[in-house]
Amino acid sequence: MNNAFPTIRPRRLRVTASMRALVRETTLAPSDFVYPMFFNAALTAPNPIAKMPGVSQFPVSHARAQAKLLAERGIKSVILFGLPKTKDPRGDSGCDPDGPVPRAVAEMKSAVPELVVITDVCVDEYTDHGHCGILRTRRDGSVEVDNDATLEVLAKMAIMHAKAGADIIAPSDMMDGRVARIRKALDAESFETIAILSYAVKYASCFYGPFRDAVNVTIACGDRAGYQMDQANAREALREAALDEAEGADMLMVKPALPYLDVIRAVRERTNLPVAAYNVSGEYSMLHAAAAAGMLDLDRAIMEVLTSIRRAGADLILTYHAIRAAEILGG
After folding, report:
1. On the chain, which terminus has fewer CB atoms closer than 10 Å, C or N?
2. Under 8 Å CB-to-CB from 140, ≥6 apart: which residues?
């Protein structure tokens, strides 16, 4: 190099905090976050989730106050999960217009109309077997998730959420063809302006463990490896994302985030759609556990993790850290 050291000194751009901020490549803002929330039809008061410090299940009666809290923190979007009073093999309570999610949607939109409300569309919270679809028995006696029968339930749930006032429908089931089926159902009911955020790339991950406590889900038989993705596959992720885009998805999600930063980057480079990443429950809980053990500074770790996800290419981050991160950013 003609202009080698001492002429070139990269540290010149790191001398002060103001200088570092001036040339910072990746930034975070509260509007980048989507806050996941759990509404439980059986509750009359918040129920803290033991494995997720600072996160609770809420009764629907708290939805308005929670919407206002998020708005005060500058968080502009939320994704809702529901815990019904009853469960059955088909997850029929997930299609109840008086269920916790549609009621919470209506309350939050009434309190803060500009809040972008996303609803998770999946039957696992509503089935007594904990799978993301309707089960059927094969001729050999084994059990599997019936892909095509599940699509009809998902479409019905999506319509019900749209009628409640949801802005975005987010199918998380990983059934083949569900984006196209939901898009068709929404358009047929004149909900053509309702967007679809597809969990396009969802891995069969151990990092979902605390979430299953949060939604009171126990998988009664087998596992989800037959429909969620193999952790070793990246090219398959690009195929899944491309298929969902072709079926009409408006945004694509990668889940989990931290073990799959390379996949977030790969999807980002292949699509012009907004890309979301879900900083899942296990990723959240392990930071809190490490901080409680004195191993790291929690606030610094939160910001470093969220920055890494943005740097990898995510436009939006679904994260349980949203409120604390917004407070840190607000000083």
Report:
1. C
2. none
Peptide linkage before 6 cis (omega within 30 of 0): yes
Name the 3-class secondary structure at 135: strand
Q: Which two tokens stand for residue 267?
A: 């999807």
Instruction: Find out whether 309 and 279 touch, Cβ atoms under 8 Å.
Output: yes
The residue-averaged pLDDT of 233-258 equals 98
Q: 51 catalytic, yes or no?
A: no
Catalytic residue among 76, 87, 109, 255: 255
pTM above 0.70, yes or no: yes
Q: For 172, list phi and psi in degrees, rounded to 5.
A: -115, 10
pLDDT digits (tens, 9 = 90+) for 79-135: 999 999 988 888 888 899 999 999 999 999 999 999 999 999 999 889 988 788 888
Give kind and range of the element (H or E) at residue 172. Answer: none
Structure tokens at 63: 């939805």
- Indicate if the pLDDT at residue 1 is higher than 80: no
In one-letter notation, the amino acid at residue 308 is S
Catalytic residue list contains 202: yes
Q: Of 76, 87, 109, 202, which one is the catalytic site residue? A: 202
Whether the CB-CB separation of 97 and 142 falls below 8 Å is answered with no
CATH number of the structural domain 28-249: 3.20.20.70
Residues 6+ apart with CB under 8 A from 284: 52, 55, 210, 319, 320, 321
